[in-house]
Q: What sequence folds into this?
């Protein structure tokens, strides 16, 4: 009873604070995940913004002497916490991804003799990079500040949706420079820069573009860059092996020459500064044109008030963070709100303020009635991020789906996106999980698009025979190992996706489609080896592949996972899975073994992305295929084991420190897992209206579920020890199952978890 | 008297034929100039059209092992008459220029086993190129036809302003291919292709673009390509050293994969054909976008009637050729109408049917009230081509000037174009001769633009201190040799251009500008060495350079000419020039020596562009600086010598054969010289209203000078021997000078030259 009173008091304090707009961004620590494998960045961005203005601590080439350079992987987000130098501040970064691109338009302030090469980390004075110290670094939501030690310059960054704002505080000098490095980029290789163009419009304004052939095959980002103070001189240098062969001798084109184009350009802008003089830079981006960038700049940052823009950025974060207000320890809040922050970074806005954007067909389109987004890491984010958005960002999720449908409309292949990146498909990872996101939204009633046309898009995508084994899959019921290196996991992922399509078809009353895809959704059975009890890659002739190793992630037909984890990938029909695996007891035993086994060192040698910290027993949380696994105990009649495992994962895999993430945040999926699981429920099978109940780690939470409605979660007697759910009351009535429906959440209400230190069996 | 009657009969026949629209294109021989140095091409284009669809007979790299390959120069227009193979048909060509670019979108039909490399000339079967024979080749204005011997395919080409239309007649085969080579280009080097993109929209339509870094530093040309018959399959191959590093394994992207981007792409489209089956291709171009190209296609060639488009192209040529109707020998007519044809190829239209075009600032602009043009080879064409257009194409010339003024508006340098090429300035050759074209048009009353703003543009261009010695020129009165390798000729060209600016200012009543630039126009005196009687490069300290050689074109401070020719470059004040050179007698002697001297072999070794055929004595007609020289005798009181020399040049420098041009046609300037001179007058100093009288080579001519007015030129007793003017009657009154004014021509009338075989001294 004491606890009930305490919690009610907490809730009251929450409600009060919501009215007074508690400062929640104080709990956001963008530095979380910047060490080792998190692949997050500490710089400034606004929710789902086009600009991610952040320091890059090294510029590592993708290849050295034509060979892949493994060090490059660390720099997916441009920043590694252990580094001691900053090369500069670039304007675009992917958050938490396992492959990379971007890093456009690196800007760096310097003083003294001009240096146009970045120099090396061990000797920062060898180039324009600078040493820095974390003691002089502040990373907040929407704001970043650091002292650049080499030249005693204070750098501050903030952003709007489409414009990065820099503020550099210089010492007094006759030789202040601002470098604009158009060579630098993330995952750079010699031919990544296709072309760059810069036009010096006047003594303080440039426009231009950078065109790359990176992860995105053909991508152009336009910019407009304005300085708060006119430069006295400027210049450019072409670092490519083959400079322009045309006539150029009429001018000295290296200095004060305003029409610049080339493959590997670095520019400098020169100033005289007095002590503590602040030079500010607005860098506006556009996927469409230089005019679009200028228009974006004028619309979003017409003036020069750095603090006002910073405040505006932070207010926008506050607004988004207030979608869920929790109580709990400071550490919990830091983990939770940083997860919220990371979950709200991407997908990213991909259109100008006037609605124009570049489509997959490389044409300019106008977004009518929706905001166009890109950066869809769907293999990751269909699992929990998009379901989360359906609850607390439903309008944005609808627009994201509109964006996917436009991608489909613009696709010569007539396919939905797999990994949408800046008017390109990166085709990364397997499945066609856009169908999951679409089905989930329609089934949960969050669709403002034509659901029948969306279903057509799903069907055409899922029947594109030339795409990664789909033809064989349709003919044989599985993707054969001799046709496709990841045929086993593809089969499993396709089967789940097909179930999503079936659910969508059912909702729309298209029962022929429902029947076809329900049949396909059982294809997971075709790669299950009853003799071993594991999923196992099968060849075209129907035989399983030899040399099976359920532990190995290499050459066994699975992507980013081994058979031990992937054998559990039937999220849409756990009951059938359990039967197939020999019944509840055997199944629980399988799960227990997974969570407690000891992995040999060889496992880590061959597994990308994952450190020992990203693994519990043989359960891999750092990669996604097992994200639903802890919740499967529920379906085998052992919910207390789900509760135990979920809390274990929350504790072990998320910390409020730079090395706090056990694997890539994966564009917010890891964070979305944290948010759901710490609230006490999880979408095991998006496309279903049901969430599985876990074990809440918060003390209390208020979810803003739209139209002024709130869904309140309260825990009684919850603690690090009291992880077992004793009883759940939903709106005053006992909840008799370990699942809750989307409607139950969205209509608002109150859910009270009574917790204890003993499992309720 | 007999002659008078004869000529009147001729005129009558002309008038009658004009009413009946004589077939004049029968006299156009596009093959003239395709052998050796003419740099013309035989393919299909319409007057001033954006598309120049023409065979390329070789693909010569600009560099071999990092060194300039001198053979490439022959292929400025893609075609050399002596070659025995055709590599394919590309859509853009410069006509007669001395540097090159373009050659976009090479298309080639083949049968049999697919070949995606062009092969070598000595073994055409080693690649997709084919042997051909001139006996099976027809080159007409607006139409080109050839038999491709290797595969027995008939290729026919025609064009509209923005669309090339191909018609290939195939044999029966299961293996017909059409190659689209995006690697091929003119003046190609390894890094010239910046990027290409192709989207296969459906089974018969592609859109895409090619982006190059050629002579134009940064240029993108968009296309839409439609086949008259669906292809059964298609594929692409990337020939670059560094192909795309992203994920691509999800599809076999080499075949039937519709979203293609890369640096060095060749594509093939496969068909089955029956005997004599015609496959047609529409290739629409746009400087703006793929949508723009599609729109251009739909507007200009909605259907598939090859013969109708061919007829339309030829009707448009007839219309332009009828601006001047002449009588004379067949050979004369072929020379004359081919000159008209070559004079009406460029500048070229550079905008979509909706008026959109890419500006120098790389932004998209909309041309309001004018047609936007590019391909301004102004160092060549200010001399006679633009003056010719002022007479018979005044509306186009006005639009060309509007285009130049927009170029100026879009220029970060605030300069008028020097060599405008596809939204770039190639900065080729010296001077700022746009001012001559502008002044000439204004002074001749052919200006629909704001002449005061145009004068401002001229002034800012002429005072751009950082441009090729202008700063020194303004300070010292000449461009010093130690600052600039062509300081002597620059000084001469600037002085003439300054005189043009002064004339324009005077016309506008801006006398301060007039005075300033009249003073500058006398700067030619500062590089005249009175001790030798030659123009001579001077150093900053006021001394002339040592080791002077009036014959040499190398290292003497002159561009494309020696001091012997350049010493005569004071077109705006021949009287002062004659005084400076010692009076009329000495001057005539100088000219005589120039035309009769014997040149040593060493001269040719060091002189670009010019064969022995391009030279008479020491007079170089194949390059432009002396184009006015034959007319200078007039000013020294020896007009009969002008008459003699002009006819000699007409005879020796122009023939109706493939090798008929003694030097590059230079974007129509050589042809414009021919047209003026064969009519009997020439604009010695554009910017003046006066034309110098020479010796007409035609029997009679009718010039359509606008508003239905005609200016008729009639010669009495003219023949190869009778080159001397005995008397000139203008509108029934004796003309007492050897000049005629622009007004006298434009108000219409009749000018009768009475000719004889004796000079009238």
A:
């Amino acid at each position: 009873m004491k606890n009930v009173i305490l919690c009610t008091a907490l809730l009251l304090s929450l409600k009060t604070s919501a009215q007074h707009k508690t400062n929640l961004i104080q709990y956001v620590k963008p530095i979380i995940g910047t060490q080792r494998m998190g692949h997050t960045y500490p710089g400034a961005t606004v929710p789902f913004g086009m600009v991610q203005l952040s320091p890059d601590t090294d510029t590592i080439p993708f290849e050295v002497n034509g060979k892949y350079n493994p060090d490059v992987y660390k720099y997916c987000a441009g920043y590694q916490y252990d580094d001691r130098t900053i090369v500069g501040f670039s304007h675009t970064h992917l958050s938490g991804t396992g492959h990379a691109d971007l890093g456009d338009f690196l800007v760096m302030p310097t003083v003294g003799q001009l240096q146009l090469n970045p120099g090396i980390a061990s000797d920062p004075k060898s180039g324009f990079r600078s040493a820095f110290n974390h003691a002089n670094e502040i990373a907040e939501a929407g704001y970043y500040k650091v002292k650049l030690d080499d030249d005693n310059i204070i750098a501050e960054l903030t952003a709007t949706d489409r414009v990065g704002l820099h503020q550099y505080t210089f010492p007094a000098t006759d030789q202040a420079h601002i470098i604009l490095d158009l060579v630098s980029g993330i995952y750079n290789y010699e031919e990544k820069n296709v072309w760059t163009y810069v036009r010096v419009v006047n003594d303080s304004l440039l426009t231009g573009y950078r065109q790359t052939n990176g992860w995105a095959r053909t991508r152009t980002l336009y910019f407009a860059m304005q300085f708060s103070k006119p430069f006295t001189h400027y210049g450019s240098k072409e670092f490519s092996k083959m400079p322009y062969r045309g006539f150029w001798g009429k001018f000295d084109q290296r200095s004060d020459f305003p029409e610049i184009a080339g493959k590997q350009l670095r520019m400098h802008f020169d100033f005289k500064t007095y002590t503590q003089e602040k030079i500010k830079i607005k860098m506006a981006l556009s996927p469409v044109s230089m005019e679009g960038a200028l228009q974006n700049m004028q619309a979003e940052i017409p003036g020069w008030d750095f603090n006002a823009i910073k405040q505006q950025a932070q207010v926008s974060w506050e607004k988004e963070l207030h979608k869920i207000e929790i109580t709990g320890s400071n550490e919990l809040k830091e983990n939770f709100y940083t997860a919220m922050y990371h979950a709200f970074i991407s997908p990213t806005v991909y259109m100008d303020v006037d609605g124009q954007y570049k489509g997959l067909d490389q044409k300019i389109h106008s977004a009518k009635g929706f905001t166009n987004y890109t950066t869809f890491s769907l293999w990751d984010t269909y699992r929990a991020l998009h379901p989360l958005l359906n609850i607390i960002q439903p309008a944005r999720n609808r627009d994201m789906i509109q964006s996917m449908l436009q991608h489909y409309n613009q696709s010569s292949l007539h396919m939905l996106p797999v990994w949408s990146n800046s008017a390109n498909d990166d085709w990364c990872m397997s499945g066609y999980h856009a169908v999951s996101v679409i089905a989930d939204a329609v089934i949960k009633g969050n669709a403002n698009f034509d659901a029948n046309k969306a279903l057509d898009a799903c069907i055409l995508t899922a029947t594109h025979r030339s795409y990664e084994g789909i033809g064989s899959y349709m003919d044989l019921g599985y993707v054969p190992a001799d046709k496709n290196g990841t045929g086993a996991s593809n089969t499993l992922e396709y089967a789940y996706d097909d179930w999503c399509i079936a659910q969508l078809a059912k909702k729309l009353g298209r029962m022929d489609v429902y029947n076809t895809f329900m049949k396909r959704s059982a294809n997971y059975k075709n790669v299950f080896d009853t003799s071993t009890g594991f999923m196992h890659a099968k060849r075209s002739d129907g035989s399983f592949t030899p040399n099976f190793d359920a532990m190995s992630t290499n050459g066994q037909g699975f992507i980013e996972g081994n058979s031990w984890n992937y054998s559990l990938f039937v999220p849409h029909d756990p009951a059938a899975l359990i039967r197939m695996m020999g019944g509840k007891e055997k199944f629980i035993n399988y799960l227990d073994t997974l969570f407690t086994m000891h992995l040999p060192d060889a496992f880590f040698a061959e597994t990308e992305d994952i450190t020992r910290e990203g693994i519990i027993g043989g359960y891999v949380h750092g990669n996604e295929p097992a994200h639903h696994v802890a919740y499967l105990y529920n379906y085998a009649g052992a919910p207390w084991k789900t509760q135990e495992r979920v809390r274990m994962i929350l504790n072990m895999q998320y910390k409020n420190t730079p090395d706090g993430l056990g694997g890539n945040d994966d564009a917010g999926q890891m964070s979305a897992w944290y948010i759901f699981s710490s609230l006490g429920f999880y979408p095991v099978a998006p496309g279903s209206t049901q969430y599985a109940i876990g074990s809440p780690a918060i003390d209390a939470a208020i979810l803003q579920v739209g139209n002024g409605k709130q869904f309140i979660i309260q825990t009684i007697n919850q603690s690090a020890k009291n992880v077992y759910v004793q009883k759940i009351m939903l709106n005053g009535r006992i909840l008799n199952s370990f699942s809750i429906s989307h409607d139950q959440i969205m209509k608002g209400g109150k859910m009270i978890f009574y917790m204890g230190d003993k499992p309720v069996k």
